[in-house]
Amino acid sequence: MPAAAPPFRLSPAQLGLIAANFLMWGGFFAVIPLVTVHFVDGRGWAAASVGLVLGLRQLTQQGLTVFGGAWADQIGPKPLILAGCLIRTLGFMWMGFADTLPVLLAASVLAGIGGGLFDAPKNAAITAVTRPEYRARMFSLTSISGNLGMVTGPLIGAALLGLGFRTAALGAGSVYLLACALLAATLPHLRPERAVGSGLSGLKIAAQDRRFRRFTLVLVGYFLLSTQLNVVVTLKAVALAGPGATGPLYGLSAGLAVVLQYPLLKFVEARVRTRVALVAAVLTVGLSLGLMGLAVTFGQLLACVALYSLGTMLVYPTQQTLTARLAPPGLTGSYFGFSAISLGLGGAVGNVVGGLLLDAGERLGTPLLPWLTLMGVGLLTALGLRWALKEVPTREEAERQG
């Protein structure tokens, strides 16, 4: 009979990662939402120009994340996380001094490079410092800290904006400097394991892993759905309750995640296998989007958003746990890096598809079209995940194998 696992107690390294994640998300949302406000409303720049800036940052970060994970397998995650924090500090601070579009573009690319360096290595570090049976809980706690940062960041940014955009940008950059110092003190240097492949060869192994490739590609459908909170859901909220509706909308989504994510995960974890929980969570997200099409009051829409949030708060820790389970020894970073493809593709397509579906629904006189289509995507994604995960070992089987 296997020995009982020790109780889940957070180590200094785990606490440092959770706190640093809060700082990173808080710093990000303290300045990025203000870029549009400052340069479009305050400086009179074209909205398309600022959209280019924000899109280029995301493209840079998501593209580099694929390689950041592979590099973590070669040199360990800590140097890349620290370098990424420092580079993002410089990028955000430089934004405060940007007075032309080329300078702002350069600053946003620098900020994207920083994010690309620390994103996948951070997940690899979480995996390395956490026992397999507790990884879902650790990823959940990290997600909660990120949601707390997402709630507090805009409040801090708005307060700093009263002192000027430059002050807000310098303050947001300083937060990443603080995160860097915290991780330098608490995160050990995690020496990479000797693996079959490393660097770009590690990415090649991840891409050739049939089970993982299926898993990653099917998840594109989920990330297409997850972006809709910023697109069709926000537009419907504004149509029902005016511009002030965005505050309650995002506050409810992030607040529920902060309060419920960890206890909900523990409840589900004790009763349902991880892969079953992921399929059910994606199905819940798709169903909630379909129900949003029937909402005729803001209260009804918020009820659907609550259901949507219950699904999304389970997807992140279960997806990350399965990614760590599928990764061979020494290739965790490469697998987390390769998994960023689903977020990059799904997010990019989702932002475009959401708007196109709304326009098509209005043009054809069928307002339910976007919502039913999104629900259909959720159903197909859930079925696709059930197929993609059928050969994935349970945690017990993975422990016996490795």
UniProtKB/TrEMBL annotation:
Domain Major facilitator superfamily (MFS) profile: 1-396
GO cellular component term, pick one: plasma membrane
Highest taxon above the source species: Bacteria
Cellular localization per UniProt: Cell membrane
Chief place of localization: membrane
Gene3D superfamilies in the cross-refs: MFS general substrate transporter like domains (1.20.1250.20)
Protein's membrane topology: Multi-pass membrane protein
Keyword Transmembrane: yes
UniProt xrefs under Pfam families: MFS_1 (PF07690)
Molecular functions per Gene Ontology: transmembrane transporter activity
Name this protein carries in UniProt: Major facilitator family protein
Organism: Deinococcus phoenicis
